[in-house]
């Protein structure tokens, strides 16, 4: 069977998913939660977080449409709800809010400090794989109907998991290189793309509703 790899689709989905996941915003949280860890423990946590993150996105992408059918949720409703969630994230990024404070509150941080393994919760979920990225992937599964395109999206997820690992493992280096000002500048740029993705998602959801009714 011939597999047609669409590089344009790969780049488009990677940029969109990277912007919504916002691994840069996870770095300060990851650094604070692993401050007492040794270098080996931090690297192991980064690796496990990346694996869990990849597995979660893989699962929701492949099973997302079945989840919608089970709960009786239309794709249009998902796009509207997901678009609003993504828009809220984009507004936070535009305002220069680097930390994902709405996702990781003080109570969750305290619980994480008492756990032996924080890679699945709270790092992989909900810090990295949240409602925005999950709804985006479910929408992609419905949008890209051929298995060639679906495989490209799966490759994007795997690639992003690798990027997440590299960024977490290099968190202190990235923080020193960019500094707080640099991180805010990059975050605002990503915020623009996130808001554009959210707008397109919301408009698509509204158009689907109009066609349906």
Number of strands: 0
Helix and strand content put the structural class at mainly alpha
Question: How far apart, in Å, are the first and last alpha carbons?
Answer: 40 Å
Helices, by number, come to: 9
Helix content: over 70%
Main sheet summary: none
Radius of gyration: 17 Å
Output mean pLDDT.
87
Series of secondary-structure elements, N-terminal to C-terminal: HHHHHHHHH
Broad shape:
globular
Low-confidence segments: none
Strand content: under 5%
Total count of domains: 1
Explain what the structure shows:
The chain is mainly α. The protein has one domain (about 10-15, about 25-35, about 40-210). The chain has 9 helices and no strands. It has helices spanning about 5-20, 25-35, 40-70, 75-95, 105-115, 120-130, 130-145, 145-170, 170-210. Helix 3 packs across helix 7 (about 130-145). The chain starts with 6 loop residues before the first helix and ends with a helix. The relative contact order is 0.22. The mean pLDDT is about 85.
How do you describe this structure in short?
Helices cover 82% and strands 0% of the residues. The chain has 213 residues and is mostly helical.
Features of the shown structure:
about 80% helix; single chain; about 210 residues; mainly alpha
Which helices and strands, and how do they pair?
Layout lengths: L6 H15 L1 H11 L5 H33 L3 H20 L11 H8 L5 H10 L2 H13 L3 H23 L1 H42 L1
Helix pairs in contact: 1-8, 2-9, 3-6, 3-7, 3-8, 4-7, 4-9
């Amino acid at each position: 069977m011939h597999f047609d790899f669409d590089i344009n689709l790969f780049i488009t989905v990677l940029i969109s998913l990277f912007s919504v996941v916002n691994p840069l915003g996870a770095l300060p949280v990851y650094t604070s939660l692993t401050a007492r860890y040794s270098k080996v423990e931090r690297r192991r946590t980064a690796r496990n977080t990346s694996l869990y993150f990849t597995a979660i996105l893989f699962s929701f992408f492949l099973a997302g449409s079945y989840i919608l059918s089970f709960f009786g949720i239309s794709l249009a409703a998902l796009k509207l709800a997901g678009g609003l969630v993504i828009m809220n994230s984009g507004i936070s990024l535009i305002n220069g809010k680097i930390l994902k404070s709405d996702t990781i509150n003080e109570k969750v941080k305290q619980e994480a400090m008492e756990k032996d393994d924080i890679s699945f919760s709270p790092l992989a979920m909900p810090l990295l794989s949240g409602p925005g990225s999950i709804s985006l992937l479910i929408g992609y599964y419905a949008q890209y109907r051929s298995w060639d395109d679906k495989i490209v999206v799966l490759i994007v997820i795997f690639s992003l998991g690798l990027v997440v690992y590299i960024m977490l493992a290099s968190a202190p280096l990235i923080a020193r290189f960019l500094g707080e000002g640099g991180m805010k500048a990059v975050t605002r740029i990503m915020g623009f793309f996130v808001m554009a993705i959210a707008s397109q998602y919301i408009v698509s959801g509204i158009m689907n509703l109009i066609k349906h009714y």
